[in-house]
Amino acid sequence: MSTLSDRLFEEILQARQRVYAVGEPTPLQKLNLPAIHAPVYAKREDLGPIRAYKWRGAYNCMAALSQEARDKGIVAASAGNHAQGVALAASVLNCRATIFMPRSTPEVKQTEVRRHGGSHVEIILHGDCYDETADAAHEYAETHGSTFVHPYDDLVTMGGQGTLADEVVMSGEGPFDRAYVAIGGGGLAASVACWLKKFWPDIKVVGVEGVDQASMKTSMEQGHRVNLDYVDVFCDGTAVHIPGEYTYPLCRDLIDEFVTVTNNEVCQAIRAMWESSRVVPEPSGAMSLAGFMKQWNEGQVRPDEKSFVVISGANMDFTQLTQIARQAGIGNHETRYLRISMASKRGQVLKYLRHMPPATTLVDVQYGKTEGDTQYPVFGIAASDEDLDTIRTTLKKKGIEFEDISEDDDVRFRMIHYQAELCEHPLFVHIEFPERAGAFLDFMERIADLASLCYFNYTYTGERVGRALVGMEFESAEDRETIRKRMAGFTRNIIRSIREISPEAFHRIMGKGALSIGSQKRETGD
Fold this sequence. Notes:
Strand order of the largest sheet: 16-11-15-13-18-19-17-20
Family: Belongs to the serine/threonine dehydratase family.
Radius of gyration: 27 Å
Cofactor: pyridoxal 5'-phosphate
CATH architecture of the largest domain: 3-Layer(aba) Sandwich
Number of strands: 20
CATH class of the largest domain: Alpha Beta
Number of helices: 20
Largest sheet: 8 strands, antiparallel
Protein name: threonine ammonia-lyase
Enzyme class: lyase
EC number: 4.3.1.19
CATH topology of the largest domain: Rossmann fold
Number of domains: 3
């Protein structure tokens, strides 16, 4: 009697005869990643017919059905990529597909489903998560006598997905020592591991999950399938609450190791792909690369080991790029956010900036003056781990209290509270300055003798110029006028442009009573 993995292997063999009716093999590209001194290749599934690997399994499953079954209709549930695969297959096979998608599915994925499927598909938006959507799809399929095409927990679907691994074997670049595959439901990881281990028995296959999506890793640790109560959806293509009935035992037997990555690590992997290849994967599409980079940084990958990762998709709502860029840091530097405890007197911001190592880049400032003898501005800094340790050590030696709030919602929402009535002889300006390390410090050095910050709002955008909304206060109107004249004479390497905003307009724009946890010290119990 054949084992489950033997059956899966046979399905991959059969799939090789079907899937190329709708797509060509995708390339295997050698990467030149920053600070990575080991050979690593990327299987570029983002270059497939739907910009993701899901076309393989969807088409294989539907092509394997009888004509009679296809005539009764196809039903699927998907947050996007599997839906596109089903839509493409429905168009090629000339059958009808009803596709259930969560109401929160990005518009770009809905549009692509309609583009690939045309009149052959109907989209039904239902539920707020995949489980609700899938339940509705199963009920619809049962009521109408249609065939439900599962996105991962089906051996024929997995057989199609396994053709990806066949192309790696046939590429001539092997054998590989390591393979990194993202895990959502586990279908891709199981099929890739099944095929590779037949040809390269010594290969180590690493399954990669998000830290708040790790249903497979948790199931392995507990010895049975676990249904997670909460699943983070930043990497929406891998947001699965429970492993499949087939994928769980297959991954248990075939995957050598499981590693979890944070959303920040995924964003850093996306940035690495952009910097090395000008490619922007979707978050779940970069997850396997994030796993490789994490293990490389931890010293678990030897320089002489050859690895490959699967760039599994590039279907993403454009607006998500803002969050990705913000979480990815700059260069090979991670971004951390520190809330600093400072006395309410002139020169304190400058005092902190002087403690920053030269290679540190200030990427965010959130500060508004509030009542009390102590202020709590937030600084976002991009620096190496070594420089971050230096900053923390220096602050401690100087007796400056600080708190790392990088994972807090305080930073995420950037609402900066200030009390306008506390600002004496205020001057509010919108400034542009050269975006380089130390530029903000140069500006502060030239005004610190007379001006004290009462508001500062700046975030790094990746442009050649930085833009900030700055509020300053003075002991006298004469001091304010002096700084006005001084700034008018600044050269362009200090300030490129400056535009004054009246206090009334500033208060109206910012909303005088806006609440911010980010620029205030939170009391215990809040």
